[in-house]
Amino acid sequence: MFYNSINNKLDVKKFIEIFFSSIPKNKTLFFPFKILKIKKETILKLKKLNYIDFAFSISRLFIDNILEEDLYNIIKISYKNFNFSSVLKIEKIFNNNYYLNLNNGPTLTFKDIAMIPLGNLLNFFSKKIDKNFLIFCATSGDTGSSANNSFKNFDKIKIFTFYPFNMISNIQRKQMTTLLKNNIKNISILGNFDTSQFLIKKIFENVKNNKKIYLISVNSINWFRILMQVIYYCYCSLNIYDKKKLNFFIPSGNFGNSLSAFISKKLGFPINKIITCTNDNFYLDNFIKNNNFNDCLIKKTIAPSIDISIPSNFLRVVSCLNIKKKKMNEINKNFFSDKVYNKYIINSIEYFYNKYKKIHDPHTITSLTSLIKNKKKNNVVVSTSYPIKFIFSIKKIIPNIKIKINIKKLFFLNEKYKIFSQNFSILINFIKKQI
Ligand SMILES: *Cc1c(COP(=O)(O)O)cnc(C)c1O
Q: Which of 252, 281, 381 for mutating ligand 1's site (highest number of atoms within 8 Å of CB)?
C-alpha cells in the first residue's frame, strides 16, 4: 500500500515511512493512494471471524514491511486485557437502534483500541532497530491516560504527555498522573489543548532525530491509530447489517473517529451516513452544514474531550473527496452533522436518567441527543467514554448517583506532574534534560 501527501500527490510514501514520520513538515498528512472497495462476497465471509482475526485481515491491507505473523501477534497481545474478548460491545437500544460501546480497554476509553497496538508495534520496532523513542502526546482528556498506560512498560520508550491545566476531568488527570513510572512525564500547560499541540510542534522543530533517539507524535493524526479505528467500524457495521446500511452518530473532536468510519465506508462496509456530533465548539458543524471554515475560540464545556477548535483529520477527508470551494455535495453524501450546546447536554443527561434510569457521559450524550432529533432507524450511537470519568460534573446534574466501577482507589494514589507556563525555553530545557 502506498500513501501520498494530501498537499502534494507526488510525495509518495510506504506505510513504514508514515509510521515513523513524526509531526510532518508543512502540516502534511498522508492518506492511502487509493482505497479499494472490497468485494461484497469477501466482506460477507469476514463476518465469521473473531475480532483479532478480523483486525488482522483488515490491517494487512494497509500495512506492509512487517511479517504477517508478527502483525498478528501484536494485534493478539494488544487485546488480551480488554473486558470482553470481542473488544467491542454492541447493544440494541430503543426503536431498533444500536449502541456501540468501545470503552472496554484498561483505561476505559476507545483510545485504547488503537493506542495499545501502537505501543506494541513501536516496542517491536525499538528492539529491531535499536533506537530510543520519545513519544509526544497532547491530550484533551482520554488520549493521555491511554497513551501513558500503553507505553508504561517499555524501557526504550519515554512518553511526554501534555494536557491543559484544569481543563480535563479530575479522574482523567489521575488516570495519567498516578502511573508513577520513570518513563512517563506529565506536563500540565497553562493554556488549552491547542496550546499544547502548538508547543509540541515547536519541540519537533527544535529537537532533531539522531542515531539514538527518535521523536514520534501519537496524536489522532497518527495514521496507525486511524487505521486501528477503521477496523471497529468495519466489524460493527458488518455484524449489525441486515439489508439496510447504518448511520453512525459520533461525538467528534479531532475527527479521528469519524475519519475512520469514512474509510470503512470506502472499503465497502455497510455504512450510510456518518453524523459528527459536537458541542459548543462546533467548527465541524459549521463546515459540514454551511461550508464555513471560520475558526472559533474554544469554550470550556462538560464534554472536554471534544472541546477542540480545528480538527486536523478533517483535512484528510477534504483532500480525499477532492473538495473545491462551494462543492459540498461530496461531503454531504457521506457526512451529516449536529451540535448540542452545553445546556442541552445537561438537560439530556437528566432526561435519559429520568426516562431510562441510565446515566450517559457528556460526550456520548451528544450522539444520543442527535439521534433522537434526527433519525428513526438503522442508527448506531457511538459511545466514547464512561460517565464515571465525569462523575463530578454529572453529580451536579443528578446529585444522588453513586460510583460503581472500582476507580475509587485512584483518589488515594500519589500524582506526578509538572506545571509549565507557555514559556518555550523553560519547557525545551526540561525536555532536553530528560533525553
Ligand atoms: C477523543 C475523544 C473524542 C473525540 O474523538 P476524535 O476521534 O478526536 O473525534 C470524543 N469523546 C471522547 C470521550 C474522547 O476521549
A: 252
In a domain, 102, yes or no: yes
For residue 320, give Cα distances in angstroms to 217, 222, 272. 23, 17, 18
Other CB atoms within a 10 A radius of the CB of residue 333 amount to 10
Q: Which is nearest to 381 in space by CA: 138, 112, 101, 116?
A: 101
Q: How far apart are CA 342 and CA 411, in angstroms?
A: 27
- CA separation for the pair 138, 148 (Å, rounded): 12
Would the pTM count as exceeding 0.90? yes
Let me know if 279 is exposed, middle or buried by CB neighbors in 10 A (0-12, 13-18, 19+): buried
**Residue position matching grid coordinates 431498533:** 96
* Structural domain of 263: 84-109+224-397
pLDDT tens figures, 362-376? 999 999 999 998 877
Domain-embedded: residue 339: yes
Cβ < 6 A, ligand 1 pocket: 109, 141-142, 220, 251-257, 305-306, 363, 384-385
Instruction: Output the domain CATH number for residue 347.
Output: 3.40.50.1100
Number of domains in the chain: 1
